[in-house]
Design a protein that fits this description.
The structure is a homodimer of 528-residue chains.
Chain A (H helix, E strand, L loop, with lengths): L7 E2 L2 E2 L6 E6 L4 E8 L3 H18 L4 H17 L1 H12 L3 H24 L5 E4 L13 E7 L3 E4 L13 H9 L3 E4 L5 H17 L7 E4 L5 H8 L5 E5 L2 H12 L7 E4 L5 E4 L1 H20 L11 E5 L4 H13 L4 E2 L3 H15 L5 E5 L10 E2 L2 E6 H6 L11 E7 L2 H10 L5 E5 L2 H6 L1 H8 L4 E4 L38 E7 L20 E3 L2 E3 L2
Helix pairs in contact in A: 1-7, 2-4, 2-6, 3-4, 3-6, 4-5, 9-10, 13-15
Chain lengths: 528, 528
């Protein structure tokens, strides 16, 4: 695996010259060759123009042809799994085993989208049949389906260097819908980005895709990314990262002469509610699961449960004690980047200074060892102080959580009502608990994209029913998901054809249903 | 029908005092009693708070119960059809026959949404079944469906005082999805708004809906509307009107601490392309249809075809001459408001002064008669000048259009490529034409929400396949439609339930499918 350190722009490469940067191994704080050259604004423009040209061809392809391209990428990624296990692990600080699992998730996603578009019913084909005899005016023949948007800009995330990055869910769903993709590589893992990018480019050539269907842009600051979001030919944006970064892209997209949708998956603290019956019967077991979920991957999951609400009563103290013990026994873990480690330390230090908050457990301290190792930290506060201090509900990205003691049911409900948008909320309870706290479920349905019962929110299943989204600030657009097959609808829009001859219609809408897909005909689903 | 002139705020009324305004009959320029009192900001806040409280109950209702409410509104509107035919006609300048047709459309929409939610499959229920034996981790039980957003602000339009106003498509789809609605009445037809609003309130009481499910707010300027859009408890906005008005709401919504979606249906010039075969065989017939569509309702439809592209060749001159004759013979028509009439006159005057543009036909001039009567005006320009002057592609709201002569196929294609977003595009052609101009269809698919073949874009059918949307600036969000059953998705978002006991799930997701709706189970549609 020879790394070149250049942007991938269609079939060509970025020019040398200009700013450079390197990956940093967060475990050693050492920089890793090669140097990566930041793209110029001219190169960004070229990538987008190539994408717009490629769109003219790519949007015409059948689901089968696009699926073959996605499968080719998946096979290519499997072919470099060993190399990724080494380089990605070095760039991200994540263990090799995790990288291998994430590689599997990445190829699974690509193949799931391939299957979806090969089957074809995702386009939501609808036919309202004509009635020439209708009075006072004839009823027209109307047929509609979802079509691609055009060039999509995807921002790779730091915490999933494969599954939410160059060939991750945003790219897979944008390609599946029929759009070219320009990826802004995350600067924490440029080598991983390059090798995956080369796999996509090779797959594009093998499958005879048009030049510009894919480009990969490097940039060390915000300039290159902003240029992408503001480019008149870019039609949508996918992003996974911080709330401040996501909001900056949202604001830039909303201020364009022609605003475009931004799908930013941002901050989330993923509240966990422990209800009395569950707490009384399995406090220690919940504490074990909670600890695992908080510290998994050094707490660097967007679904990490960062706050847990514990009503007073049997089991409450057992839960707190058990969680404290486990957090105190936690080894320090390498974090994704020195910057993320430093931001984590800063947020933990600031929260530690809050007079109403107690630091109740700290894990292994490795501050004397080189490298970006995060110390597990558990905070505690009571519900009234929590309600007074909105900062305590904000995400601390890393292996930390806060236990919030609630005096009674009313405090639990009041806290739930006061929550902002999150990706997930979790309830531990019995069926009796759920009946007693029926309003808790109703409140949380309005706050999150996914409700978890007697489990933990980390581990986001990729499937048809998954929703990985939620109201702002969890995401920019709570009507969408960035995981699972419904993610494809972020990068498509419906188009209607009135009184078109069948020869000029897309196959999905032709008489006789030649693709044998599900269609809504006069309001009824049918494959006829 | 006794008009009170007050906002409707839940079961109560707006207070007297503060600014007032009256309706103006545009045919006579006379003001019509009573005076309407603008809502105070406190009243806006109260309406939104009541809506947020009502949401807690309304969102729980079954599809059948919400459908009964919609049907009650429809029946109520039918009961006041005679009164509407008089008052709405006076307030809007639209003929009584048109008002009766629009009343029919309004109740049809309400009943179509009632049918949709009674049947229930619209929620897009998805179940991914669990696999406890899966390695390395068990596969969870995941179920998702679309749920309502919360209070929706709807801005009534001037040009559809019934079908896109107080009980129009936005309100019907927001109610159907499970949301309370606060309507900002359009100041052009306050009396119509009040009587329809009272019908909705009566239906809400009859069907035992919670107070706040509906409010109707009057305001003469932008203040009241902006307060609605910026209110923290408002979750989405529906708007039909001008590009400047829609963009102001979009910008305000995007700048909120928690941005919300705005569905603004704004400016559109609805390009019409005449292809050689059609032009050669039926130039006069197309001119007749074009004239009817341009002047229908005094040209005040959002789908009015405002520009027609005519390639040189047989029939081109016949078309132009026939259209000119018909436009010259057009009677002046009363427009919706004195302001709209004056804006129309201003835009027509400005375009008349463009040196490259010719005024080739003018209809009846009624400037000596009182009242806001619009004079039909036809412009002509050649393609090269058109391409140089982007203002010529902008909407003139009223009975006007521009004929653009194209020297050849290349000019037609270049113009199509340069178009902004529109609601519709129309092609007149033979099947041979479509083959020759295959790229025209491909380009227009990217520019509009609906493509019309051998017809005219006015007359927007309400059904399952209709898309009344299109890329910016036609709408704020080209991924949506404001007409037809898919409009419901603007006011909903998906929520996923992981490992929930069936007793705590919504009926749509319960084991055994008690509502007998279509569900996607492990990726396959089924009613089992």
């Amino acid at each position: 695996m020879e790394l070149k350190g250049r942007s991938i722009i269609g079939w060509g490469s970025g020019e040398p010259g200009g700013r450079t940067f390197t990956a940093i191994n967060p475990a050693t704080a050492q920089s890793m060759p090669p140097s990566y050259v930041c793209a110029s604004l001219q190169e960004v423009d070229r990538a987008v123009r190539l994408a717009a040209e490629a769109f003219e061809n790519y949007r015409r392809l059948s689901g089968k042809d696009k699926a073959a391209f996605l499968r080719e990428i998946a096979t290519g990624i499997e072919g470099i799994a060993d190399a990724l296990a080494v380089r990605t692990s070095q760039e991200s600080g994540l263990p090799e085993a995790r990288i291998r699992t994430e590689t599997g998730r990445t190829v699974f996603q690509l193949r799931l989208f391939a299957q979806l578009i090969e089957e074809g019913s995702w386009v939501n084909a609808r036919l309202d049949r004509p009635d020439p005899a209708r009075k006072p005016v004839p009823k027209p023949d109307l047929r509609s389906m979802w079509r691609p948007l055009g060039p999509v800009a995807v921002f790779g995330s730091s915490n999933f260097p494969l599954a939410f990055s160059v060939a991750g869910g945003d790219t897979a769903s944008a390609f599946a819908a029929g759009n070219p993709v320009i990826v802004k590589a995350h600067s924490a893992h440029p080598g991983t980005s390059e090798v995956v990018g080369e796999v996509i480019r090779a797959a594009a050539r093998t499958r005879k895709m048009p030049e510009g269907i894919f480009s990969l842009i490097y940039g060390a600051g915000a300039e290159v990314g902003m240029a992408l979001v503001k480019h008149p030919l870019v039609k949508a944006v996918g992003f996974t990262g911080s709330e401040s970064g996501g909001r900056a892209l949202m604001d830039a997209a909303a201020a364009r002469p022609n605003p475009i949708p931004v799908y930013a998956e941002m901050g989330s603290t993923n509240p966990v509610f422990l209800l009395p019956g569950a707490l009384a019967s399995r406090a220690a077991q919940i504490a074990e699961g909670m600890h695992g979920s908080v510290t998994l991957g050094a707490g660097q999951f967007c679904t990490k449960p960062g706050m847990v609400f514990v009503p007073a009563g049997p089991g409450a103290e057992d839960f707190a004690q058990a969680l404290m013990r486990r957090m105190a026994d936690s080894p320090a873990q390498v974090m994704l980047t020195p910057q993320i480690h430093s931001a984590y330390n800063g947020l933990v230090a600031a929260r530690s200074k809050e007079s109403s908050v107690a630091v109740v457990a700290e894990g292994e301290d490795s501050s004397s060892v080189p490298g970006a190792r995060g110390k597990a930290t558990l905070f505690a506060v009571d519900a009234r102080e929590f309600a007074r201090n909105p900062g305590l509900a904000e995400e601390i990205f890393g292996p930390s959580a806060i236990v919030v003691s609630c005096a009674n049911r009313a405090e639990v409900i009041e806290i739930a009502r006061g929550l902002d948008g999150h990706l997930t909320a979790t309830i531990h309870g019995t069926e009796d608990d759920l009946r007693e706290y029926y309003d808790l479920v109703e409140i949380l349905e309005q706050k999150v994209g996914r409700l978890v019962f007697n489990g933990f929110p980390t581990g986001v299943e990729v499937g048809h029913a998954m929703i990985h989204g939620g109201p702002y600030p969890a995401t920019a657009d709570g009507r969408s998901t960035s995981v699972g097959t419904q993610a494809i609808y972020r990068f498509a829009r419906p188009v209607c054809y009135q009184n078109f001859p069948t020869s000029a219609l897309p196959d999905e809408l032709k008489d006789g249903n030649p693709l044998h897909i599900w269609r809504l005909v006069d309001g009824s689903l049918t494959k006829d």
